[in-house]
Write a structure and sequence with these properties.
alpha/beta
């Protein structure tokens, strides 16, 4: 299988090239040239353990030899604390898919552990080196750092918005002092960080001269690894309920997590509906209501990893929404660049999408649902998961189970837990408790591409 740019304009490239370069030279995001139909394989996949299922699904998209892929997958998920890797829990009216049993207690570990091992495999074959550049709204950075720290041939540069992520998220990144890890706090928002990264990747001469690679969900391998847990959870819930299909509620900011579910459905997984859940930064919910993508100023919320107005993965969705027409994607992205907004016409039935429904939960609703689920069901949800739970309540169907994605352990958000419940005694974790005694290292950058270019070049030259 080869990979193309969502904006067209490049020759197809093999899987390894798409993973190592991260983003096409024309600024477009890589996509497979076709989506495999897995309908005929669902029965044989249904009872597979997580690692086996991952090998089956990833193997459809990757040209990595089966033995090597098996080793990559097994090493990646040996770091998880739950034998199921992702645990499905029945909580009141929903099933909760816990995706936070990895090294940094966030769903990003499921992709980042895989990507770190995949990078090492690909670079080991060529003897090349790679400088990873990433922007984070909270969890991506720490998952990337813990997936790449100490690895041969890889340096990782992570930008986060200064003062706009939780203290725990910040310390999970800045207390990693390996020589190949560089943390930078940007005087701006996550959207500024993401813009800086994308603009530097669009500087093709700099990108090539400094061997830049990406681990944000703009890297196709991130999305690919996340497809697996949709299949895994759906199989287990359908087995225990005898339901013919499931629904998923997905808290999202950058559109990568829900895109993985969208692709799982296109592969043939019986997903009746994907419920996109946003917080006060509701640009995606508004798009699925009226077709207009109109970013607004970023608002700080209790769910900081979703405080995003420019969803980096959205153009991959647009490629399919426009009937796999890269020219239409390019026109949309050009209009966004010119006017700051762009629109898509509704489907004939008046909806924006026949699979995705969307809604938002503001800060008060987020805290309220955290209190409700803790009091009524004795389940403590982190604030991002709570956004998904709040929006899920508007899209329930008694005949079709709802699976809500739990994207982070509540211990990562002690301040918000205290705000919701009065104390954080129920949200402790030894991984988090150990952070307080560790030394930290972080640089500060203005929200400037020129500053980032100088920062990266200087540290690559020092190596």
């Amino acid at each position: 299988m080869n990979y193309i740019s969502a904006r067209g304009g490049i020759a197809p490239v093999p899987f390894g090239n798409a993973v190592l370069t991260g983003i096409a030279d024309n600024g477009g995001l890589f996509l497979p040239d076709s989506i495999p139909d897995a309908t005929g394989r669902l029965a044989e996949w249904r009872s597979l353990p997580y690692a086996d299922l991952a090998c089956e699904i990833i193997g459809l998209y990757a040209d990595t030899p089966a033995v090597a892929l098996r080793g990559i997958v097994e090493r990646s998920y040996s770091t998880f604390r739950d034998p199921d890797i992702t645990r499905v829990v029945s909580v009141g009216p929903v099933f909760v898919l816990e995706l936070f049993h990895g090294p940094t207690l966030a769903f990003k570990d499921l992709a980042m552990q895989f990507l770190g091992n995949l990078f090492e495999h690909l670079l080991g074959k060529s003897g090349a080196s790679l400088n990873i550049l990433a922007a984070t709204s909270g969890d991506t950075g720490s998952a990337a750092i813990h997936g790449l720290r100490g690895r041969d041939g890889v340096r990782v540069f992570v930008l986060h918005p200064r003062g706009r992520i939780s203290k725990t998220q910040e310390r999970q990144m800045t207390t990693v002092l390996d020589d190949n890890v560089f943390n930078a706090a940007v005087e701006g928002t996550f959207d500024d960080c993401q813009r800086m990264v994308k603009e530097l990747f669009s500087d093709t001469p700099f990108k090539r001269a400094h061997a830049l690679g990406a681990v944000n969900s703009i890297n196709w391998a991130r999305v690919l690894a996340q497809i697996v847990y949709y299949f895994y959870a759906a199989f287990r819930v359908m087995d225990c309920t005898d339901a013919p299909a499931v629904r998923f509620a997905v808290p999202t900011g950058n559109f990568g997590n829900i895109l993985a579910g969208y692709l799982a459905a296109r592969m043939g997984l019986p997903i009746d509906r994907l419920v996109l859940a946003t917080n006060d930064n509701d640009v995606l919910a508004r798009f699925f209501a009226d077709g207009a993508y109109r970013p607004a100023p970023v608002v700080s919320t209790p769910s900081p990893s979703m405080d995003i107005q420019v969803a980096g993965n959205f153009e991959r969705y647009l490629y399919y929404r426009f009937g796999e027409d890269p020219a239409a994607v390019s026109r949309f992205m050009d209009e966004m660049a010119r006017n700051g907004t762009a629109s898509v016409a509704p489907l004939p039935d008046g909806r924006m999408d026949d699979l995705i429904a969307a809604g938002s939960a503001d800060s008060d609703a987020t805290l309220a649902i955290m209190r409700e689920y803790h009091k009524r069901y004795r389940y403590l949800a982190d604030p991002h998961t709570a956004v998904g739970l709040a929006v899920a309540t508007r899209h329930m169907d008694e005949a079709i189970p709802m699976i809500c994605l739990a994207t982070a352990h509540p211990a990562k958000f002690g301040e918000t837990i205290r705000q919701a419940l009065g104390d954080d005694a129920a949200a402790r974790h030894p991984i988090i408790d150990r952070l307080g005694s560790l030394a930290a290292r972080c640089d500060v950058l203005p929200a400037s591409v020129a500053a980032l270019r100088e920062y990266v070049a200087a540290r690559v030259a020092e190596a």
